[in-house]
């Protein structure tokens, strides 16, 4: 349910009644993890998923019934039959709690709003879809959103911010130019900061959870910014630029006293080799590398790997 927190808050603030189908148990192979949810409003519109489309049609009917006064229910889906019974194609079994979100108490709705703001949140639900403290059917928990610092407010930053925010990152855009660093250009950003990046970083230390993406390819900005970022515990530090730009940048960083072990952490040229060149394609390449670094993924095609497809 918390994965749809922003959508839930939008609907609740518009005065809608909302039901959710929340994934509470997974056995075997399944496309989504516990906590994933499918939301149905009283206007008939939907968002989210619990199975990638296999059982959502059936869940629309169940959610609509709950909004019409039926009690909450817990339903399981396995492999469907050939007669149209809803089921999964991947061979696993999922258990789903169908419940009305608008019936939750104030403390649970407060946690939903925390999740919508990118903050850590936790909700315990019983089999009737009510918040509880003892013997919950499911504990829904979300950490604070992954912080992503984007340095430089050009078109590549616009595309990256939009995509990263959709993937659950709390994006801070940092640029000293007032013409570019505006909330209007970055409506999906958690924050847009107008300041020199190295000065801002001196006052706002990075954590091990941070990813830093430098998109300025201007050594006057890059070198002091990367010097600070590489001295921090940030999980990911990458910089945009050609291979020649990278070589000049590395030489400048060495001249600035950045040690070899810190330089080895720099991802440059930035991104995975996807072959694209538009701002949106470059953003996809960059974010793919950030996500791979966060989860320890290889970046290889899944068709060439073995083992589970999803890291829990």
Provide an overview of this structure.
This protein has helices at 5-13, 56-67, 106-116, 155-166, 197-203, 219-230, 243-255, 260-263, 279-295, and strands at residues 18-27, 37-41, 46-48, 73-77, 93-100, 121-125, 138-142, 146-151, 169-175, 191-194, 211-214, 236-239, 266-267. The strands form three sheets. The chain has a six-stranded parallel sheet, with helices on both faces. A five-stranded antiparallel sheet has the order 3-2-1-5-4. A two-stranded antiparallel ribbon has the order 6-7. Strand 11 (211-214), helix 6 and strand 12 form a beta-alpha-beta unit. Helices cover 31% and strands 22% of the residues. Helix 4 (155-166) crosses helix 9.
């Amino acid at each position: 349910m918390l994965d749809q927190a922003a959508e839930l808050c939008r609907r609740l603030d518009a005065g809608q009644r909302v039901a959710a189908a929340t994934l509470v148990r997974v056995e075997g192979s399944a496309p989504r993890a516990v906590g994933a949810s499918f939301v149905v409003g009283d206007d008939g519109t939907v968002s989210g998923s619990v199975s990638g489309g296999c059982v959502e049609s059936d869940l629309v009917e169940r959610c609509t019934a709950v909004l019409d006064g039926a009690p909450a229910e817990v339903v399981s889906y396995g492999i469907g039959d050939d007669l149209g019974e809803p089921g999964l194609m991947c061979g696993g079994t999922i258990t789903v709690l169908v419940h009305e979100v608008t019936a939750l108490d104030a403390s649970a709705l407060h946690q939903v709003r925390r999740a919508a703001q990118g903050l850590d949140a936790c909700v315990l639900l019983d089999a009737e879809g009510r918040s509880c403290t003892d013997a919950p059917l499911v504990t829904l928990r979300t950490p604070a959103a992954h912080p992503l610092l984007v340095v430089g407010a050009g078109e590549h930053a616009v595309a990256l911010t939009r995509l990263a925010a959709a993937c659950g990152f709390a994006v801070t855009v940092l640029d000293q130019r007032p013409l570019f660093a505006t909330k209007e250009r970055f409506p999906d950003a958690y924050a847009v900061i107008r300041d020199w990046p190295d000065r801002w970083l001196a006052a706002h230390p990075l954590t091990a959870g941070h990813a830093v993406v430098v998109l300025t390819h201007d050594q006057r900005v890059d070198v002091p910014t990367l010097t600070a970022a590489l001295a921090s515990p940030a999980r990911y530090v990458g910089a945009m630029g050609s291979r020649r730009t990278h070589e000049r940048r590395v030489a400048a960083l060495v001249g600035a006293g950045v040690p070899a072990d810190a330089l080895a952490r720099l991802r440059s040229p930035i991104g995975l080799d996807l072959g694209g060149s538009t701002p949106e394609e470059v953003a996809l390449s960059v974010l793919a590398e950030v996500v791979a670094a966060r989860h320890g993924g290889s970046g290889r095609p899944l068709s060439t790997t073995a083992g589970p497809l999803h890291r829990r």
